[in-house]
Amino acid sequence: MNRPDSVEITEVGPRDGLQSEPEFIATGDKIRLINGLIAAGLKRIEFSSFVSPRAVPQLADVNEVLAGIDRSGNTVLSALVPNARGAIRAVDAGVDEIVVFMSASESHNLKNVNRTVDESLAGFADVARIAGDAGIPVHGAIATALGCPFEGDVPVSQLEYIARHYRDMGFTGVGLGDTTGMATPPVVQRAVRHLQDTVPDLPITLHFHNTRGLGLVNVMTGLDEGICRFESSFGGMGGCPFAPKATGNICTEDLVYMMHEMGIGTGIDLAALIEVAREVERVMGRELPGQVMKAGPRLSLHSMDAVATAAG
Ligand code: ZN
Residue of 21, 80, 92, 210 with fewest CB within 10 Å of its CB? Predict the structure, then answer.
């Protein structure tokens, strides 16, 4: 077992969590939540996306959001871009990092971005050039990396194929996204070990959704394999409110709570983060899946007088 002493958590709630919300969330609310995350100690935030405003109206205010974020500290602000046009917009806006994404399987990539895997990779070469000229690092995500809803298990050779291209384009790392929550500990272990063996110089980030309840279990598997980069969403936001089976990302407060209880550092103030998650609930006007924000950390004890006893 080679668990790390500390981990780096990227908050993806403002992008992955919000993108499929049908009601537009006020730009000022987005900025306030992101600044709350920064104040709580988040060092990496995927704050929005430079996709077509027609495709994702929720993130059409990406420039206004960026302009309102407190950038006096050293939090890295990354944005998703789908293509060269998005990369130019991201460079012009002054993001710290660009994230590109494609699906591991041909069928999901065609369905999602209407391109073959090789067409996506060719497009990323343009993004890499644009970002490189501006001195901005690029991180490459792979959606459906740990299971495809159309094709099932994803061969690790396919992950290796994409990761080698990412490395050769100078990307700073590869993200394995469990887009539809199909990962299990053996699936995670197989994928991570294969990439560590075949593309060892490319750091791996794990991005889990809690669709089948195994999100934090999969994080544990990643930790045991020495992974120290994870992505999560405040309050466990994500998924589509109209598609009950598409549940959200793993929850940032729950992830931070687990790390701290295991003696693994995050640099994040859990109490402050919980306050941000409660604010997300208020903004959304509904209960979110995050659990630690409801129960509190295990040693935030109750007064005996205040609690009625019950059998069971
Ligand atoms: Zn995701």
Answer: 92
